[in-house]
Amino acid sequence: MQTPGNKRSPCPSFRLREVASMYFTMIMVFLVILVVALQGTAPRENYFPYKVPLDPQSFLELSWNVSYPEQVVHFQLLVKEPKFGLLFGMSDRGEFENADLAVLWSDGHSSYFGDAWSDEKGQLHMDSQQDYQLLKAHRTPEGLYLVFKRAFSTCDPKDYLIEDGTVHLIYGILEKPVRSLQAINISAIHKGLQRVQLLKPNISTPELPRDMKTMEIRAPDVVIPSQETTYWCYMVELPDSFPRHHIVMYEPVITTGNEAIVHHMEVFQCAAEFDSFPHYNGPCDSKMKPDRLNFCRHVLAAWAMGAQAFYYPEEAGLAFGGPGSSKYLRLEIHYHNPLVFKGRHDSSGIRLYYTATLRRYDAGIMELGLVYTPVMAIPPGEAGFLLNGYCTDKCTQLALPPAGIHIFASQLHTHLTGRKVVTILSREGREREVVNADNHYSPHFQGDVLITTCMYNTKDRNQATVGGFSITDEMCVNYVHYYPQTQLELCKSAVDSGYLHRYFNLVNRFNDEEICMCPQASVTQQFSSVPWNAFNRDVLKSLYDFAPISMHCNKSSAVRFPSLWTQQVVHRPCASCPHGVIES
């Protein structure tokens, strides 16, 4: 995240811009020949602290670092099986039209590198202003390394502005030689998309304690099922009489070759009121999974693809072990296997760093957003559909201390159609501040409403996208890290199911096509039969904006705090309304 003091360099004057454009046009008359046969070693890995696979097979691996003083991102791209070139770049929504690209291509004899852009038809053009600057090219036993840099802002209208938040990275692989840049046919190449946060928070790493120890919670050589989506559960037992410690850091441990399949992981601690939990190693949705595992909901660590090590501030740590703490932990791994690999083994997990020297505060993790349920759905063909998840003032008053809590970190998560996520604080019906930022402090969250809003784009889908666990379903989640710890583990909402049933009845009355309302029809089936005309879309949006909600104000035992949580009326904040609130 950019700190307030970091400002992007201003764009040059028109005259200087003209000169720069002429200069780079002359340079590009003589294309830079890239000698890919150079022998050498790859740059030091610690120079590129962030890493993510671009493709499901991990043939393309991207690493990068961010220089806020220079306002520059340095990229390192490892091509494990170089062919005749590749395209790498950025676009608004991951499309290859109107994209900003760095292109490496070969005519079979020589190789070339250049900054290019694509028009609305996907035709490639060499950019007159070369802002992707090639720094190094190395061939090693691992493959071909390309190192290049790009400024956040280039003042080139053909270039993508690198900002905070999600960046849609696109890639394409050239499997045949091409005689020129213009001869590349984007529609005929293997291509794909990866979403990352390029501009990582500009924060210092806390000093770790000298008595720190490590513990790895890892899957036991699991054979990943040959299906697109799997949630795998594995039970772990801490040693007897394991004393109280503070977790001060954690990081992912990914089995080599599975970087593109391990989508996200969580470590949960089980409820202390149970003396024992059965050992289990298998799919989380299996009928063989013991029901008691549903009481393992206290989050100790959460990681998603593209994230790095997580550090706690020096004044706080996440407590585990000791009296009143269960010795049973549950590892949950989401495997995203779109190519349906068979026989792939995995021992991924999370490494915990912990200390016996307890810190001033016990930290906690609270899950905000929407409940994983199909009652929250996005119609097909939407460019920017909004869904809101509520943590109501009724819940925060009941579960948080009078002095409030200190939020110091936030982890946002959606699936494939998610475009934006933000959590705001609302007090007395008015938006007060954004709270999904690092190092955010507020002593007043008790009695406040925390609203997590997610925006989705379903332009490429012809069926409704429902909430759920599958990668093709959607989520809207914000893991908030805070102190002091409370019993509140989950504060999320969903539209009241009775009002959704009324929506389906209304659609039946005003449309010629009937929706299956039979008892055995699931909500997903009912949504799939809705004819998505303008009327049905608008009514669904109004339903989500004004209907009562069902609140989940849950403890780590998965039990709700005692109160009435169904058919709750919420006051939606509205900056333009006379009283600052939409009455519902």
TrEMBL record:
It is an enzyme of class 1 (oxidoreductase). The chain crosses the membrane at residues 20-38. Pathway: Catecholamine biosynthesis; (R)-noradrenaline biosynthesis; (R)-noradrenaline from dopamine: step 1/1. One of its GO terms (molecular function) is L-ascorbic acid binding. Its EC number is 1.14.17.1. One of its GO terms (biological process) is norepinephrine biosynthetic process. Its cofactor is Cu(2+). It is a single-pass type II membrane protein. It comes from the Eukaryota. It is found in: Cytoplasmic vesicle, Secretory vesicle, Chromaffin granule lumen; Cytoplasmic vesicle, Secretory vesicle, Chromaffin granule membrane. SMART domains: DoH. Catalyzes the hydroxylation of dopamine to noradrenaline (also known as norepinephrine), and is thus vital for regulation of these neurotransmitters. Belongs to the copper type II ascorbate-dependent monooxygenase family. This is Dopamine beta-hydroxylase. It comes from Chelydra serpentina (Snapping turtle).
